[in-house]
Write a structure and sequence with these properties.
heterodimer, A: 998 residues, alpha+beta, Ubiquitin-like (UB roll), FAD/NAD(P)-binding domain, 7-stranded mixed beta sheet, 50 strands, 28% strand, B: 88 residues, mainly beta, Folate-binding fold, 4-stranded antiparallel beta sheet, 1 helix, 6 strands, globular, binds zinc ion
């Protein structure tokens, strides 16, 4: 297909490089430097999608981020990307895109029937219609709405692309590379400031790319090129194109999304697709420019109706005609620039100016070019369904209330200009109290909350001369404050055309007897009638009107609709716009991909993985790992065809019968030193610590101030003022912060230092009746007899040349020792233990066997110390000192905590001695009771007791101490199980604790 | 993301810190009689003011010091940061 709408010359595209692409399955050609939009228009394609609510045909309205319609679904390198603006997507070889929001296709869209049923879809339609009956929601309404709504379809596959995050600091972040961005960046860079200049488009220069101005002795475009190349060569300046600053957060933190690869057929090997920049700037210059405002008239959404600035951009940057019989409908001088551009390229436009008798340099130029200008004229309605083919135009009265002499004229596009709206989104996000400027009928930034300055047309300044002057000054001033250097540059002279005043008129009245839809919000299909209805129904606050009608709530954030909506509300309400006020702007300014937000923190990279020094030994010996917080721990060591259940039973049984060894490196360890260390422990733990002798360990429980158990573990007195504390794997970080809190803030008088030593020590627990034999062979010189190293004893030894610390402590309930060596020696220690232990039938055991051993012993752990239980609940009341005070003690006398039927940990055995009880099951008295069946408590941990060879569980149940011997039921609604059980003591094995002392 | 000036390390991003609540709360002294009401106040009851709030943060990924931060809860403006042993 030939490019019927491409000019023979002109534009900034590379005509030497032809590019082929597909749209809705059809092949087209464009050029390097095109966007998908410009290439489609060059090929005469104006129908790109269907509107959100009425499924009306939609084309192109803008030429960049201002585009409300032309959202397409991209298929790039076998990855789909929904919600891409065709006006921002750069063309690449093989690009493949299709329309969204239409079914079965864009030319024949079944949903378009909504358009003819339009009167059934007024504002608030969904609220009113789908209220009742409730059961219809998920069966009838929701599937229909879901099928009909939405832009594009997300992939359900894993995204193969890579995304990165980057943190950056700078003196000045300058957003936008138009005249104000370039001038302020240049002035700041001369003063030695560290500058980041961000441009969301691929080309730098902003309005200078399309305006007819002279700066110094160069055209605006040439001047921009010169400044950019100078900035790029400066070491203190970072210049970024394709980079959208979309969010302005607290303390001058801004976030920018850099599209690194979206314009390429596929992402280069070592590049990410997109990069998210977190930029902390000392000063921010917002030079985001302004967006042309539409004029509102009948069927103003028909393909072929577009912003006049967009039509000019397609001409000047892409050499593309948006039509060959253009109508320019304007209330200000900007429309004339577009008309003149058409004329220069051999096309005869007709200008309809709402103003009666405007006069300015540019109007004179248009007249001199013999352009047909009709004053006091408006477009009443566009005609044509899938493309404009004519327009009803009319004379408008001086008071703008009446239209007369409606006539139909042929045209193939209508370029509208309703003056300019400064882009204040980022300033508003930063907390700037924006104000309404009567002169330009728009909001502009005023009082800054953060370190931000808005310049140029974003600040409502529409002359280049003033923009450059203030921008050079501001760039110089802001940077000078930071660098204390001044290297002032002179402001170049500017030649530009002077503008006359715009007409305060945006909405063409309906002709009698017609009910054309006049759209305000093109993306969300909100028409003038919807706003009128919302106001009739009593909505007053602009925030409510917005939510009821969805005005400005689409992905374009109302860039082209907000102000016309406000003008309309203020007209109907007889208020001035500032009284109505604008709605809140929130990040992101423009859609950001989920991939960019997530960055590299996906899958296993979402958090660090910690491995013990023995990890590779475990791996070599068929360990199956489990996540324990951020640690990887062996869950069991697989032999042959064993499953988890068989392997863990074998390992646990071997501990009970012979000896096992478990990697306990992951336990939290805190080194505590200082003359007041004992006093600190005495305040932190519930039991007494002042009299613990050197060389002894003690088990302790610590509470939060609300009396809930925070953690448990053993602490050993290594020497007079030196203790070694252990915590559970999960709570290690919290316990350290807890100790630091009390030492730094509550009892700073205590002379103690604490530091984490978790990663400094590798630990092995050697447990079982033969563990002493193993230990004796590991340390032949030491007296490790029951007398030499009694239960809760500690000694240091030499393990074949390396220093080791030996703690006689037990989690399994067997005779057991924990040996610690410096981490680097961990694997050496482990291999020695396995080698020496061989003759005693030693086997490594994982966390599953470890759990089995502790559960049948009735040792409480994380599943019981779950942040909801007090010492009594865990049968730890014997460890609570009556004499001394400690953290959380006062809470333990709360009424609920001392209730006679307070919950307590118990053992649970199924009556059939066969059925395992799912963890989380409820314990109830009567399995057949009516729902809701009152529960007594829940099963916290379950295992297969290797001692008795039947299932055994721990549960925390109400009045637990009086429940022993009762026959109850464990019910698991999740697993649909009801199991008759007997309540027994939680100390199922060795209730007197003789083995650990043997 | 806030930018918090640790009195020990300088300006750092919020993600290096963890929040610790109202800094004006004083723990009752050990071994002293405390009424139910006073204890409840200490453990559970916190004000949620609009405006200036003196609060604790720990520079958890930095020097690990607990610090005091005077922050506006509405605007996030930080007026002052102090070491643990300093008073406003
Ligand atoms: Zn610090």
């Amino acid at each position: 297909m030939s490019e019927k709408f491409r000019l023979d010359k002109g534009g900034l595209i590379n005509r030497n490089k032809k590019i082929s692409f597909k749209f809705n399955g059809k092949k087209y050609f464009g050029y390097e430097g095109d966007t998908l939009a410009s290439a489609l228009i060059a090929n005469g394609v104006h129908l790109v999608g269907r509107s959100f609510k009425y499924h009306r045909p939609r084309g192109f309205f803008g030429a960049g981020v201002d585009e409300p319609y032309a959202i397409v679904q991209m298929n790039r390198n076998n990855e789909v990307d929904p919600n891409v603006r065709a006006t921002e997507q750069e063309l690449f070889e093989g690009l493949d895109a299709k329309s969204v929001n239409c079914w079965p296709n864009v030319d024949f869209d079944i949903g378009a029937i909504n358009n003819f049923l339009g009167k059934f879809f007024p504002a608030g339609f969904y609220y009113k219609t789908f209220m009742w009956p409730k059961s219809f929601w998920y069966k009838v309404y929701e599937p229909i709405i879901r099928k009909a709504a939405g832009f594009g379809a997300a992939s359900i596959k894993h995204d193969k692309e890579k995304y990165e995050h980057k943190y950056e600091y700078c003196d000045l972040l300058i957003i936008g590379s138009g005249p104000s961005g370039l001038a302020s960046a240049y002035a700041a860079a001369q003063n030695g400031a560290k500058v980041i200049l961000a441009e969301d488009k691929s080309r730098f220069g902003g309005s200078l790319l399309t305006s007819e101005v002279t700066i110094g002795n160069q055209s605006g475009h040439e001047w921009a090129e010169k400044i950019i190349s100078e900035l790029k060569s400066m070491p203190n300046v970072v210049v970024k194109n394709r980079s959208q600053v979309f969010g302005y957060y607290d303390h001058n933190m801004l976030v920018m999304s850099e599209r690194i690869s979206d314009h390429l057929p596929k992402t280069d090997k070592y590049n990410p697709k997109q990069r998210l920049w977190y930029i902390r700037a000392k000063e921010v210059v917002i030079s985001s420019g302004s967006i042309e405002r539409p004029l509102v008239f009948g069927n103003n959404d028909t393909p072929g109706v577009m912003l006049s600035s967009a039509a000019k951009e397609y001409l000047k940057i892409y050499g593309v005609l948006v039509g060959k019989k253009p109508l320019v409908f304007t209330n200000n001088d900007s429309g004339y620039e577009t008309a003149i551009e058409f004329k220069k390229n051999g096309i005869d436009p007709i200008v309809l100016d709402t103003r009666k008798d405007p006069n300015s340099e540019i109007i004179k130029e248009a007249k001199d070019l013999n352009i047909n200008i009709k004053n006091s004229y408006v477009v009443v309605a566009a005609k044509g369904y899938k493309k404009v083919n004519s327009a009803d135009i009319a004379k408008i009265s001086d008071d703008k209330k009446n239209i007369n002499n409606i006539e139909n004229i042929k045209c193939d596009c209508i370029c509208v200009s309703g003056f300019w709206t400064p882009t204040i989104h980022l300033a508003s996000q930063s907390g700037n109290k924006t104000k309404f400027n009567e002169e330009i009928d728009a909001f502009i930034p005023s009082q800054s909350k953060q370190k931000e300055t808005t310049l140029g047309s974003a600040n409502g300044v529409f002359t280049l001369e003033e923009t450059l002057k203030t921008s050079f000054e501001t760039g110089n001033k802001l940077s000078k404050q930071i660098t204390n250097k001044e290297n002032k540059v002179s402001v170049p002279t500017v030649v530009e055309k002077k503008y006359s005043n715009h007409d305060k008129f945006w909405c063409v009245p309906l002709p009698e007897g017609k009910n054309y839809k006049r759209f305000l919000d093109f993306q969300n299909d909100v028409a003038v009638s919807d706003i009128q209805l919302a106001l009739r129904e009593g909505y007053r606050s602009i925030e409510h009107v917005k939510r009821y009608t969805t005005l400005g709530m689409a992905t374009d954030q109302g860039r082209t609709s907000n102000l016309n909506g406000l003008q309309l509300v203020s007209d109907i309400e007889n208020k001035v716009v500032p009284q109505v006020g604008h709605t809140t702007f929130r990040p992101p300014y423009s859609p950001v991909s989920i991939g960019a937000i997530v960055g590299r923190e996906i899958g296993k990279h979402s958090k660090p993985t910690r491995k013990s020094p023995m990890h590779y030994w475990h791996e070599k010996n068929n360990a199956v790992f489990v996540d324990a917080g951020v640690w990887l721990r062996p869950r069991y060591y697989k032999r042959g065809n064993e499953n988890l259940f068989e392997a863990s039973k074998r390992e646990a049984r071997n501990v009970r019968q012979n000896v096992g060894v478990c990697d306990v490196t992951t336990l939290g360890k805190i080194d505590i030193k200082g003359p007041d260390a004992a006093e600190l422990l005495n305040r932190v733990y519930t039991n007494a610590w002042l009299k613990l002798p050197v060389g002894k360990a003690r088990y302790g429980v610590m509470l939060r101030e609300d009396g809930i158990v925070m953690d448990d573990g053993t602490t050993t007195r290594i020497s007079e003022n030196h203790y070694h504390m252990t915590t559970t794997t999960a709570q290690a970080a919290n316990v350290l912060s807890h100790l630091e809190y009390y030492l730094q803030l509550v009892w700073p008088e205590l002379n103690v230092n604490v530091v984490s030593s978790t990663e400094q020590w590798a630990g092995a627990a050697i447990a079982g009746p033969k563990s002493r034999d193993v230990l004796q062979k590991l340390f032949p010189d030491l007296d490790v007899s029951n007398k030499g190293l009694p239960f809760m004893g500690y000694m240091e030894g030499n393990l074949f040349g390396i220093n080791a610390k030996i703690y006689r402590i037990s989690f399994s309930g067997e005779l057991a020792y924990e040996v610690n060596v410096e981490s680097d020696n961990g694997n050496y220690m482990w291999e020695k233990i396995m080698e020496i232990g061989k003759e005693f039938n030693i086997q490594p055991y994982g966390t599953e066997a470890l759990s089995t051993l502790r559960i049948e012993m009735g040792h409480v752990a994380g599943s019981e110390l779950d942040g909801r239980t007090i010492p009594y609940d865990n049968s730890l009341e014997g460890l609570v000192s009556k004499k001394k005070d400690f953290i959380g003690k006062r809470s333990l006398s709360k009424t609920a905590y001392i209730a006679p039927d307070r919950q307590k940990v118990v053992g649970v055995v199924p009556l059939d001695k066969k059925t395992s009880i799912p963890e989380g099951s409820y314990i109830v008295k009567d399995a057949k009771a009516k729902l809701p069946n009152p529960k007594l408590g829940h099963v916290s941990a379950s295992c297969w007791s290797v001692e008795y060879d039947n299932p055994f569980s721990l549960a925390i149940i109400k009045d637990g101490k009086n429940m022993i011997g009762q026959k109850l039921f464990a019910m698991s609604p999740l697993k649909n199980k009801t199991i008759p059980v007997e309540i027994v003591s939680s100390h199922y094995v060795d209730p007197k604790g003789e083995r650990v002392r043997s | 993301m806030l930018h918090i000036k640790c009195p020990h390390c300088g300006l750092r991003s919020q993600n290096e810190f963890s929040y610790g609540g109202d800094a004006s709360v004083k723990r009752p002294e050990l071994n002293k009689e405390v009424s139910d009401k006073d204890w409840d106040n200490f453990v559970y009851l916190r004000k949620s003011p609009i405006g200036k709030h003196l609060e604790l943060w720990q520079h958890i990924s930095g020097c690990r010091q607990w610090i005091k931060v005077e922050r506006d809860t509405l605007t996030h403006e930080i007026f002052k940061t102090l070491k643990a042993n300093e008073e406003v």
